[in-house]
Design a protein that fits this description.
1204 residues, 84 strands, six-stranded mixed β-sheet, mainly beta, Jelly Rolls, globular, Methylamine Dehydrogenase, Chain H, five-stranded mixed β-sheet
């Protein structure tokens, strides 16, 4: 029996197609299996245990095991009959009823006594145990006399010994007949001898069996209505029980269909057990975080719920299933166990098979890539004088030239020379963010530059040292002052005040003798000429070092610290190397980063007396010794300590193979050193290729030698306004990562973070793996069950059947190839991209670079700010972007306004939505000066943002802040014209002036509008056209009676600067203008023309019509270039794509017929409806476009513009 509580950070995903993968290495004789968070264990037929996966906190039971995909025997255990793997914890029971546990020991969760992690099995003082369960931060067992015992964290009452319960191993109150127990995330359930079930602890979603408003349940609560139960299984959000008759009953959260009742969404939770319909007789059940699987009596598997990372073995385009589906492996399954993102089975032949997440190698196949290297690996082709590590990348300086690798740019690269930099002496890599770039450098003349792209930053005098924090940087100048810019919400810039951001560098108050500077997550420390240290900013857990925990916007002296030579700021701790070779640290002691316990004053790290430099990352630090060796301590996840174990320790451990290091730098979970022979070696997290190994470094691989990368050099008064930083993997519980080594060579600081406007919640995830191979959902529809295809048809005249695959578009870097369309002549109005997901607030959300994902629903009346420029293939100087914005399961009817983060939200709507629905719209949106977009939502909602193109800075298109030009209701417009006219009559057109009003000039030839229907009297459609005679045969917006429905349109204006809006039924109309074109050297808007219609209706040339509905899970390929008025050399087209009478709920994805369908949705639909959306679509090399549909539906394609 295995339990898993949370969806962890995922580095790689393998969806099992049972005819393909090999069994887990060496586990050829498994009789039972248990899947934990990032590790797996199996009981073999000789009654021993083997485990594989992450060993960072000792979960494998072998203190010297490096962790990874190869199973290792748990020493000292024999006669084992049961194993349970939890969240970094493992417990085992032998045939005499004794139990042992090991691994993460938070509050005594492994051993029953709070203390350090248990890296080897520890016997629990209970006897005659008949069942044991390792949970999230607690564990439980049942003894033969029917009592139940639990130990570990009791924050939600999960130990079950009543309010104000004791510590250590406690007896569960009132239980004398227990036969089975299941520990989950902050709650517990057990099965009684009479076949009933009781639960207690955290009661969210009613999983403890009472109304969720009842709060925590501190003692067992009987679950009403259940009898004859033979198995109970718990997880993060729900519980399932198996009865003696083979039926399955589930209760708790059902938002992703995990209850299997055919329902999903927030209203599907139940505190009462609900029977799962459609199942045969079931023999065993297993639950995951938001999924469920069952093994039937014939050995077949049935799964339902979330398909996050292939958890239920569906293709990557299926976000979740609300009802069970059958999976038929070609062998008998005798046991199944599920963790957070992976599951494993033991077969009748003794082999073990796993699928899903492979973060720590828990799938057990050494040939599969993970995202870490626990010992140093060489970065071939790199010679260095010094090194610097940033968020997802690393750089070196060699003879003044800078070479970087990883994801400094929009995609993972091997070592690449940065053009535009020369004579560099000091270099720092950080996290960057919205306000600052991810890397900065100082040349021999003291010139300070940040990149990419390379831009000179004006400071008051020459720079001597630099450090980049979490969206801010500081530079120590040659006159002893420090100047900083960027985020200042905790006073980390040292100006004596707090503010969201400061764009212009200014001096830190009271600093006049600085020699070095180091920036952390939200604090800064400065080394002074008298070898003392001062720190400023947030003082959480005493990281300012002045003896308290009060934030300070002016610098404070670090208590008792003198003789300092180098300093390094981690995310929430700092370390200093003194002239006597000792190292002193202070701040938060997570996993031993400060050497013992959290301290608000410096404490000495034991065992170090010859240090010459210190470097810090997320919850760990390293020291370079005078011998050339390196020692590290703190968090061991991702192998960041470099000793090959992956284990955390508060005592310094020696890094393997390093004996001639001369320079060191660390950031997040990665460390790099420069050796005496000028080579570079790195270890730790490699989620974005930051070890120089792409995509992973499980074994050393050769990296291509550096090649020049063209960049442009500009000059500005401040750093580049938008970064291309990417998230690196981190297993730490800390938020943004930070690392900085302030030696003369380089320093490193904090990881990327997003910023939100004053009314928004925090956005980007600061610690997320970006190397996952598939998205959790390609559809933004909450009820979609689509299968994302693997390839599209190569013929243009027929429907193409697209088989499913185990991977979809990547969630690391930019999606698929994301190449842009360019013509080396006049500037393009739009540059199209293959669709890429830039934000997804849902719990299962994935994005192209791991940022702006799973941030939670946008609160009603608030704004969500998302970085756009500098991410994926959107350049830093983009003026606007073409995005598809989708709202998901809104709490009430309302609208979203997309705007460039101005002080006031414009009076305009970009997407209108209904309660509980999935509503998309394509929007061309002007970016803020920092390259961001803001999304104001009237009601609470989840939000998905897919980027499909951008407007270059030299484009003929001029983006505007949204402005209302017409409203037939009694509402205001920008100038009082075209308002309060009453509904547009059925079968008539409304003529609206566009050119010469607001910020649209008289000579504008094309406008980009958001047209909204409100309160239509009947179903119908809107056609927008340049007031030329009869409305063309095309639809831009389809609506139903009484609905509010928008669509963004690119519309050619009449010679008089007007547009006409034809409506089939009587309705109110609203027109918001978001941009225009004055001249069209690369873009031509045309009156709408129908290019494709699967119904028995005409197209303009009689082609691509009457094909019948497009089958679900397939793509329809339609030629665009070379037909009608679209020239042969067109690379993009503006399309209005409409789904008509779909057979089920789903989505459309419009893409340039690449082998894989991108992770994006352009139109979301419900059964039987008519749903359009305008799409600026990239064409493939043959001038074709493909439209993938999840469910069977008719499709219409109208062309309204093109380039070329």
């Amino acid at each position: 029996m295995a339990l898993m509580m949370v969806l962890g950070t995922i580095a790689a995903t393998v969806v099992v197609q049972f005819s393909g993968p090999e069994p887990v290495a060496r586990a050829e004789s498994a009789v039972s299996i248990s899947a934990g968070d990032e590790h797996t264990c199996a009981v073999l037929n000789d009654a021993t245990i083997e485990c594989w996966g992450d060993n960072g906190r000792g979960a494998l039971g072998d203190p010297i095991a490096p962790g990874g995909a190869t199973p290792v025997a748990v020493p000292g255990l024999t006669d084992i009959v049961e194993v349970s793997a939890g969240f970094g914890i493992t417990c085992a029971r032998d045939d005499s009823g004794d139990i042992w546990c090991w691994g993460a020991n938070n509050q005594g969760a492994a051993t029953g006594t709070p203390g350090s992690d248990a890296t080897s099995p520890v016997q629990i003082p209970l006897s005659d145990v008949i069942d044991v369960s390792a949970g999230y931060t607690h564990s439980c067992a049942v003894v033969a006399t029917g009592e139940a015992y639990c130990w570990g964290n009791d924050s939600s009452g999960q130990l079950g010994d009543g309010p104000g319960g004791g510590s250590g191993i406690v007896q569960v109150s009132g239980v004398t007949d227990a036969v089975e127990i299941s520990a989950a995330q902050f709650f517990t359930c057990l099965r009684h001898a009479g076949g009933t079930v009781s639960c207690w602890g955290n009661n969210s979603f009613g999983k403890a069996g009472i109304d969720p408003a009842g709060g925590f349940v501190h003692a067992p609560n009987p679950i009403a209505g259940l009898t004859d139960v033979v198995q109970v299984a718990t997880e993060q959000s729900h519980v399932c029980a198996l009865t003696g008759s083979g039926t399955v009953w589930c209760w708790g959260a059902g938002d992703f269909g995990q209850l299997g009742t055919g329902a999903s969404g927030g209203g599907s939770a139940s505190s009462a057990p609900l029977q799962v319909p459609g199942l045969p007789e079931i023999a065993q059940i297993e639950v995951m975080s938001v999924s469920t699987c069952a093994l039937d009596v014939d050995g077949d598997l049935w799964c339902w719920g979330s398909n996050y990372r292939g958890a239920i073995m569906q293709s990557a385009g299926v976000p979740f299933l609300v009802s069970p589906v059958e999976i038929e492996p070609p062998f008998d399954v005798v046991d199944i166990s599920s963790g957070a993102g992976h599951s494993c089975v033991a077969s009748g032949t003794g082999s073990a098979w796993c699928w899903g997440s492979n973060t720590g190698g828990q799938l057990g196949d050494p040939s599969l890539a993970t995202d870490t290297a626990a010992t140093p690996v060489v970065v071939p082709g790199v010679s260095a004088d010094s090194v610097a590590v940033g968020q997802g990348f690393a750089c070196s300086v060699d003879d003044g030239d800078v070479t970087c690798w990883g994801q400094l740019y929009s995609t993972q690269t091997g070592p690449t020379t940065v053009a535009g930099l020369s004579g560099i002496e000091v270099l720092d890599g950080g996290g960057g963010g919205q306000q600052v770039d991810p890397a900065c450098a100082i040349d021999g003349d003291g010139t300070f530059s940040c990149f990419p792209p390379v831009a000179t930053v004006d400071l008051s005098t020459k720079a001597a040292d630099v450090s980049i924090g979490n969206d801010f940087y500081c530079a120590a100048l040659t006159d002893g002052t420090v100047e900083c810019a960027g985020r200042n919400d905790h006073g980390q810039l040292g100006r004596g005040t707090t503010s969201f951001t400061e764009t212009t560098p200014a001096a830190m108050t009271g600093i006049s003798t600085a020699t070095h500077v180091t920036a952390g997550q939200n604090h800064t420390c400065v080394l002074l000429a008298d070898d003392t240290v001062r720190c400023v900013g947030r003082n959480w857990n005493g990281k300012l070092g002045n003896g308290d925990d009060t934030d300070s916007p002016t610098s404070v002296a670090v208590t008792g610290l003198t003789g300092v030579e180098t300093i390094a700021a981690g995310s929430n701790h700092n370390c200093a190397q003194k002239s006597d070779g000792t190292v002193w640290c202070w701040g938060y002691n997570y996993a031993g980063a400060v050497g013992g316990s959290s301290s608000d004053v410096p404490v000495q790290i034991t065992g170090i007396s010859d240090a010459t430099e210190v470097a810090s990352g997320v919850d760990f630090s390293c020291a370079l010794r005078s011998t050339g060796a390196v020692v590290c301590w703190g968090l061991g996840a991702d192998g960041r300590l470099g000793d090959g174990t992956g284990q955390s320790t508060s005592t310094p451990v020696v890094v393997s193979r390093i004996s001639t290091a001369t320079d060191i730098d660390a950031h997040a979970g990665t460390v790099c050193v420069r050796l005496a022979d000028s080579s570079v070696e790195c270890w730790g997290a490699n989620g974005l290729g930051n070890l120089g190994q792409i995509p992973a470094a499980s074994t050393p691989v050769e990296v291509a030698t550096a090649a020049p990368l063209a960049t442009t050099t500009t000059s500005s008064s401040s750093s580049s306004s938008s970064s291309s930083s990417s998230s690196s993997s981190s297993s730490s519980s800390s938020s943004s990562s930070s690392s900085s080594s302030s030696s003369s060579s380089s320093s490193s600081s904090s990881s990327s973070s997003s910023s939100s406007s004053s009314s928004s919640s925090s956005s980007s995830s600061s610690s997320s793996s970006s190397s996952s191979s598939s998205s959790s959902s390609s559809s933004s529809s909450s009820s979609s069950t689509s299968s994302v295809p693997d390839s599209s048809s190569s013929t243009s005249s027929s429907t193409s059947s697209v088989p499913g695959s185990s991977t979809s578009s990547s969630s690391s870097s930019s999606s698929t190839s994301s190449t842009t369309s360019t013509v080396p002549t006049e500037p393009a109005a739009f540059t199209t991209l293959e669709p890429g997901r830039f934000a997804d607030t849902r719990p299962i959300g994935e994005t192209t670079d791991g940022r702006f994902r799973r941030d939670g629903r946008i609160a009603a009346g608030s704004t969500y700010e998302v970085d756009i420029a500098g991410r994926g293939d959107v350049p830093h100087d983009a003026a606007a972007v073409v995005i598809n914005v989708t709202t998901v399961r809104s709490s009430a009817p309302g609208h979203v306004t997309v705007y460039p983060c101005t002080a006031t939200v414009p009076s305009a709507s970009s997407v209108n939505y209904l309660a509980g629905a999935v509503d998309p719209n394509e929007v061309i949106a002007k970016l803020s000066p920092t390259g961001a977009l803001c999304f104001f939502s009237f009601a609470e909602t989840d939000l998905i943002v897919d980027v499909v193109g951008f407007v270059p800075g030299d484009s003929a298109f001029v983006p505007l802040e949204p402005a209302r030009f017409a409203d037939s209701r009694t509402q205001d417009t920008i100038d009082g014209a075209f308002r309060d006219t009453g509904p547009v009559a059925a079968g008539s057109s409304w003529k609206v002036d566009i050119a010469g009003r607001g910020n649209v000039p008289d000579d504008a030839v094309t406008a980009v509008l958001n047209v909204t229907v409100a309160g239509a009297a009947a179903s119908g459609h809107i056609t927008a056209y340049p007031c030329t005679g009869t409305p063309p045969t095309a639809s831009h917006l389809n609506y139903f009676a009484g609905t509010t429905r928008p669509n963004e349109l690119v519309v050619r204006l009449s010679d008089d600067g007007e547009i006409c809006l034809y409506s089939h039924a009587s309705t109110h109309l609203i027109v918001d203008v978001v941009g225009y074109l004055e001249q069209t050297p690369r873009f031509t808007s045309i009156a709408p023309v129908r290019y494709g219609d699967t119904r028995d209706e005409d197209t303009f040339d009689g082609q691509f019509r009457d094909t019948g509905p497009i089958a679900g899970g397939t793509s329809w390929e339609v030629p665009i270039a070379g037909r009608g008025d679209v020239p042969d050399d067109a690379t993009l087209a503006v399309l209005n794509v409409t789904a008509v009478r779909p057979a089920g709920a789903g989505h459309l994805t419009v893409y340039p017929c690449t082998p894989e369908v991108p992770n994006a949705s352009h139109v979301n639909y419900v059964p039987g409806g008519v749903r359009p959306n305008e799409v600026i679509a990239k064409l493939d090399d043959d001038g074709n476009v493909c439209v993938y549909t999840h469910a069977t539906t008719h499709l219409l394609i109208d062309v309204t513009g093109h380039d070329g």
